[in-house]
Each structure stands twice: as C-alpha cells, then as structure tokens.
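User: My collaborator and I are trying to settle a disagreement about how two of our proteins should look. Neither of us wants to argue from intuition anymore, so we agreed to look at predicted structures for both before our next call. Could you fold the first one, then the second, and keep them clearly separated?

Assistant: That sounds like a sensible way to settle it. I'll keep them separate. The first protein:
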Amino acid sequence: MKSPTDHRDPNQAADQRDHEHAHKPTTPGQHRWTHHDNYHATCRRCGTRAQKRPSPYGRRWWTEWRLPDGTTRDNYNGQPTPPCQPTEEDTGAC
C-alpha cells in the first residue's frame, strides 16, 4: 500500500520527478544558519541569533530570536521566524 503522503504521478517520467525535488535557489528572505551547538545559531547574512529553549510548563521547545536591531521575538505563542534582512554588504549595495 502506498503512503498517503506519496503524491507522485505514476505516469510521470523519472527525470521529471527528480527535477521537482532539485535544490531550489535561496531567496532573499531565507536565513543561512551557522550552528554553534544544538541550541544556538547565528545567521551568516543578517546576524540574527537564535536560541532554542525548553518550556517551563511541559515537554515543548521554543525558539527566541535576537534581531540585529536589538529586539527579540519568539515562537512560544506562534510567531513565525522573522525574515532575513541581509546587511548592505551582503546585498551588494553601495
């Protein structure tokens, strides 16, 4: 029996299937993380720091992001990951 998540068309050629799963280019809003350990990472492009923390109320982990402008955000209450805002040096602007 096929997996319910398997959405491949059996009539599709193998080379077309491989093309669908090819590496997609990085968009300007994606972070490029350098992992320091299991719980800390820094974005190489914008300098955002991420820290994974355990919840004090149960078996749940949440992430706190420290943005380059000094503000913080977290996903404890469902906030999405802040977008990557590369510095002018990374974008090639003069």
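The second protein, kept apart from the first:
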Amino acid sequence: MSLVQPQVVRYADAAELADRAAARLLAALVELQRDGRVVQVCLTGGRIAHEVYAHLGELVAGSGLDPSRLELWWGDERFVPTGDPDRNAGPTLALLAGHFALDPARTHPMPSADGVIDAAASAATYAKELGDTRFDLCLLGMGSDGHVASIFPNHPSSEPTAQPVIGVSDAPKPPPERISLTIPTLNESSQVWFLISGTEKSNALARSLAGDTSLPAARVAGRDRTLWLVDQAAASELPYFDCRS
C-alpha cells in the first residue's frame, strides 16, 4: 500500500465534478505524454465517468493530446455479450470515438460472454493480454457498499490473491458474472483517481478515507498519488479540512 497521503478535492455538485475532472484528466494526460511515450490508462464505467469522458472529448481538440499514444484498459467488466448495454467498454468507446480516433491495437476491452460461459477463463485471457503493464493513471468509481472495480466487501472477490485479474461469480449486484482487476494490480498504478458522486456514497467515502479496510476502496492507492474527486453530496460526512480544491 502506498504511503503517500491521499488528496481529496470537493466540488459543488456532480456537474462541476465531471467538468473539472475532465479538465484535470486532460492536463495530466498531456503532461504524461511530454516525453513521447505511450500512456497506460485504466478506465472505469458509471454515470460520472461517462460524463467525464464526454467532457474530455470536447476538450481534446487543440490541447496537445495525442490519442494514438493512449493505451486503454478497463478495471472491470460485466460478463455479458458484446452488445449488452450493461458493458462498461461499449458506452465509453462510443463517447470517446465521437470526438477522436483511438488506436484499436491499443484499446483493450475485457472479454465478453459471446459464446463463452467461464468468466474465470476469460479473466486469465485478459491477464495474459495485460502482462506486466503498470498503469500511469487508473480511474475508479466506488459503490455505496465500498466496492471498487468488481471487488465487493464480504465476498470471495475481496479475498487476498496473487492473480492480476479474476472472474467474479455471484456478485451482490447484477449482473452476477464479472471480470475484475484485483487490488494488487490496481495498487501498481502510479496514480489512482476516484470519481465519487452522490449522498448514497457518503458513508463509504468517509469510512474508506478513515482507513476501514473492510471496504475494498480503502485498500486501493496509487504508488505516487491517490486523488479522490468528490462532489459535495458524497463528501457530506467528511470533515471539511479533509478537502482541498
């Protein structure tokens, strides 16, 4: 676990969170590309993340970002067929592709359930594709129960493992079959950014920042930086001094 103190940034509402997070993300990606390398990014799904991606797409033109030097991965996926609207990758790629071209060879959605019934085997396939990749920047959401990616509290998915990617069965929320990066893999990220919105997340957010390791989100941190971007509703149970803009 990183010894770097997490930074919490509070925004007035979900709209400001999405807008400011997108601008912050764009600036970070441009900076990471300054040495000419390909930047490894782990994406998340969810309403706020999709709003961030939409704003990001609108900001890219003239920013200096080279989308062809972004290598995109996913933190978790619902193990459903490719066209299923529950998948994380489909809506994300549609949002981004509406604004700029991505290199298909550098876009790595997790396997779907097309003709496959074994999430664990598909997780092993993704682990091989991932190899020894370490993310420069990993975006994550958090559930009201403190789950992160598809690692759920009080569930076999949160048990210690040396595997980089796991198949998740009987998840507490639908769909029950999923694929997820594990906490050790997420913790290899240089930077981890959480995007958290809504009153229903406030208790889990406060507990995570207080170090309640019964919640998976509390056990995830970047090696160099951990950033919690939250709206006022999600931060309602935090002491104000925990939040810096």
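Some points you might bring to the call about the second protein. The chain has one domain: 27-222. The longest strand covers residues 225-231.
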